[in-house]
Amino acid sequence: MKAKRVQLQSLRTEFETLRMKISESVIDFFARTMKIANKMRIHGEKMEDVTIVEKILPSMTPKFNFVVCSIEESKDINNLSIDELQSSLLVHEQKVTKQEKKEQVLKASTENQSTFKADRGRGRW
Q1: Which pLDDT score, from 0 to 100, does residue 101 have?
Q2: Is the whole model's pTM more than 0.85, yes or no?
Q3: Where are the residues of the annotated region Disordered (predicted)?
Q4: How far apart, in Å, are the Cα atoms of 102 and each of 22, 67, 78, 89, 99?
Q5: Run of H or E including 50
Q6: pLDDT at position 121 over 70
Q7: Cβ pair 15, 36 in contact under 8 A
Q8: Other CB atoms within 10 Å distance of the CB of residue 4
Q9: What is the mean pLDDT of residues 105-125?
Q10: Domain ranges of the chain
């Protein structure tokens, strides 16, 4: 019984200190969070979805600040399911990723044009 209590206390600490890593995807962060939450449930912790949602929102990386604020202001957190939250954050992640790719392509294109212009007029005949 004592070992179970110690394990649960360790899981509580892990849950409380949980933060999304900069390089981590929404899917991976949710999987890691749910793994801890489910272990806590197995050890007798009453872990409700609202507790998990309330943990995830402030634990996201800064690139999610805008969407987290939007979710907190527009949705009833008490009735927001984990799946709904994950879907909203995934949509934002996909938009950010798409925008980052566009910016990389534009940057590469601009760099290529600069190199081309630098080679012009140098008399390479």
Answers
A1: 83
A2: no
A3: 101-125
A4: 20, 20, 37, 20, 5
A5: helix 49-59
A6: no
A7: yes
A8: 11
A9: 66
A10: 2-116
